[in-house]
Amino acid sequence: MPAAAPPPAAPRPPPRPGRAAWRAARGTVADEDAAWAAWQHHDAHADGRLWIGVTSTGIYCRPVCRVRLPRRENCRFFAQATQAEAAGFRACLRCRPEQAPGLARVDGPATLADLAADWLRPTLQTARPPALGPIAARLGISPRHLRRIFVRRHGLAPLAWWHDQRRTVRADPTPTPAPAVPPCR
User: Biased composition, Pro residues: where in the chain (predicted)?
Assistant: First the structure.
């Protein structure tokens, strides 16, 4: 009796959408090792110059995004956000890479700390430092949170920063022009 013919092989499932585009997009950044290091350290200097696509999730992020780092082999690096979108990645909802650096929610604390410094600067000529409560209320945050983000951004607590800036302003007054001396006759 002849051997029975094997059953027909099941058709292979189609590849996931965008998989070919992800493979083609590999190597769009000149130095992938430097790009990976920038993402590991959340390097703000690479923000706006580098975007990272994660093939396991289909999402692309900015290097400053504080997500859990994926495996290295699942990462693709792009020089522009539009390249990542063209490769089939969608924008991260946390760091909002489609927005310009400085406008996403992840940039909020630095922006708030800079606004607080801008509001403290005009008070440097006064005798006493301003109260932080009203400044924090204007920003919509608590005084404790203002202190925390201010220290993270400027390296000093708001009042210590105010005293330091005040010393700098007093030590370096703006030069005044010398009075004109009438000519000798």
Answer: 1-17
